[in-house]
Design brief:
6-stranded mixed sheet; 16 helices; about 30% helix; about 25% strand; binds adenosine-5'-triphosphate; binds magnesium ion
């Protein structure tokens, strides 16, 4: 085992009197991949923000390279050889990909004070190439998909030599192929002696890269282990504080209902080519594919967020022309987007307001909101999804990443849409709450909703879907019954053109 690089001890942090970290410790050695596990809101990101000087601890010490670590300004971490991929992206939307990667240390041109754009773009391209990522470095970040933004964040952290690399949920937005590329880079860095702190809710990530694991629960340090695949059940128990035997709830008996959604020859300027399929009442239709396959574009087109070039959408046998999301919502569509920060939440508003946002009419009588009923409904979702918050009036922007996602899910579950489009619904959500979300999906389906679930996690697609559409290059390349599908088959069609 390598020597100790970082040792944090007795770390405490409270926000307005609420303890978030209570005497937490973390020891990381050179050349190890150290996973940090814990439920949504356990305090993982806060601990990382303390290590990188964004947040100041109330108590506790951090020893790095044998000396106390004092970071006064987040930019200083580069000097110490610490790199971080933040869970909430830290990119500037109006700057280009290359400008974001090299911000603050752009290569100078022959004329002092001027940036050598060509050199910067070339260097950015080289790093992105390492990540097998084809992207124009002069493109503005605001035009990128979430997965592409994630790749830029990773490229930024890799663009300078670091001794400690922190990755807070790097794979949440990525698909299988990109994750494998990232893992090979992580393994290579480990060979070079770099220490990596790795945060993820995807238990399947652990086997591929992790050496050591520390578990936090509710702001407390629970345990540290040398990682072995056999430990998974125990780790889950340590994280959630109870036994969790099954990953997917039992599927209630399902018989195909009437056709709710019929899509014929749908094309968009963006990417979709001749999409035709049907979805039925009570059905969970999984949509699988790699990054760029057109899955999110399909959801956006159905939701009226992208213009349709050609083709027809029928809802309950009636042709519909959907011009806007608000019209789609009135027709009974719901959409949990993949980019929840941008589309899903009002960060300045309370948790209650966000959950009830699209459902207020259910709680009003003669134009008056029935506050008691509304409060009860909001509380029931907070409890069911175990949203960790000071209460229903807490500002959503103050919640941990995973708890914000739970809030978006709660909003649409509360709305009880007839056709629910879920784009990566459990991304960044802890194992315990995933189960509750799956149960809700079944409950809604039983009540007659049609659910289209886009997911990059094949086990989730296989575990939950009644039928699976596979997409590639903007087309549907396969339609599989749950019984005949397996990972290899899906991947084969996901990669076919
Ligand atoms: N600025 C803040 N003000 C008030 N509370 C905060 C603030 N930042 C974080 N918290 C609270 O601290 C707790 C821990 O949050 P943190 O982001 O560290 O969780 P996490 O373990 O990273 O969770 P996730 O898996 O969802 O990302 C949460 O309950 C959160 O609401
Ligand atoms: Mg976090």
């Amino acid at each position: 085992m390598g020597e100790v690089l970082l040792k944090a001890q007795g770390i405490c942090k409270a926000y307005s009197g609420i303890t978030v970290l209570d005497h937490v410790e973390l020891t990381v050695r050179k050349g190890e991949v150290h996973a940090l596990l814990g439920e949504n809101g356990a305090g993982k990101s806060t601990l990382m923000k303390i290590l990188t000087g964004i947040v100041k601890q109330d108590e506790g010490s951090i020893i790095y390279r044998g000396e106390p670590l004092w970071i006064h300004h987040p930019q200083e971490i580069q000097k110490y050889g610490i790199g971080i991929v933040y869970q909430e992206f830290n990119l500037l939307p109006d700057l280009t990909v290359a400008e974001n990667i090299f911000i603050g240390r752009e290569p100078e041109s022959r004329f002092r004070g001027f940036i050598n754009d060509r050199k910067m773009n070339r260097q950015a391209e080289e790093i992105l190439e390492q990540l097998h990522c084809r992207m124009d470095p002069t493109q503005k970040v605001s035009t990128l998909s979430v997965a592409q933004q994630q790749m830029v964040e990773i490229a930024k952290a890799l663009s300078y030599q670091c001794e400690l690399l922190i990755m807070d949920e790097p794979t949440a937005a990525l698909t299988e192929h990109e994750i494998q590329v990232l893992f090979s880079i992580i393994r290579q860095l480990r060979e070079e002696g770099v220490a990596i702190i790795y945060i993820s809710h995807r238990m399947s990530d652990l086997d591929a890269i992790v050496d050591t694991v520390s578990v936090l629960r509710d702001g407390h340090f629970i345990a540290k282990h040398r990682y072995k695949p056999e430990l998974k059940d125990q780790l889950i128990k340590e994280m959630v504080g109870r036994d969790l035997v099954q990953k997917y709830p039992p599927r209630p008996a399902y018989t195909r209902g009437e056709c709710t959604l019929r899509v014929q020859d749908l094309c968009t300027h963006k990417r979709l080519k001749h999409i035709s399929f049907e979805a039925y009442q009570g059905e969970i239709l999984g949509i699988a594919g790699l990054m760029g396959a057109g899955r999110t574009e399909l959801a956006r087109a159905l939701f009226g967020a992208d213009p349709i070039e050609k083709g027809e959408i029928q809802l309950y046998g009636k042709k519909q022309v959907i011009h806007s999301p608000s019209q789609a919502i009135r027709m009974g569509f719901g959409y949990v987007t993949e980019d929840r920060k941008r589309d899903g939440l009002m960060l300045e508003q309370s948790l209650k307001e966000n959950i009830l946002l699209s459902s207020y009419e259910r709680f009003s009588r003669l134009g008056m909101i029935q506050d008691g009923m509304a409060d009860k409904e909001a509380d029931s979702f907070i409890e069911m999804l175990r949203i960790r918050a000071a209460g229903r009036s807490q500002r959503v922007g103050r919640l941990s990443g995973g708890n914000q996602q739970k809030a978006v899910i709660a909003k649409w579950l509360c709305r009880r849409s007839r056709v629910l489009l879920l784009d990566e619904p459990t991304r960044g959500i802890d194992v315990g709450a995933k189960y509750e979300i799956y149960e809700w999906m079944y409950r809604l389906a039983e009540d007659g909703a049609t659910i289209l679930m886009i997911s990059s996690e094949l086990p989730e697609i296989l575990g939950m879907s009644d039928r699976i559409l596979v997409m590639s290059g903007g087309r549907i390349t396969a339609e599989l019954d749950a019984g005949e599908a397996d990972q290899n088959k899906i991947l084969k069609y996901a990669m076919s053109q």
